[in-house]
Amino acid sequence: MVDSTILVEKKYWMLSDEELEIIKGTPQWVMVLNHLYKYGSITGNEAKEYYGISRLPARIHEIVHVHKIPINIKVEPITQKNRFGKYTTFAKYSLEE
Q: Is the pTM of this model over 0.85?
């Protein structure tokens, strides 16, 4: 599997050519699954920032229903203020224990 530590510790535009080559052909669902195993949870903003994935719910669906990976993923609604001071709700996906 891809070592997502590379992407979490650095911004994607700061990756070296060697690091980019590692992740180049990796499917997005594999990157999400690896992140879940390594860090326990992921949000849409993290998926976009670290991996360039803009449709995280589709990747979660792919993991569970298409590839039938035997894991339980919990969806938790998180409400926070955005940069404009308005409350917004987004999903946090995490591995159930």
A: no
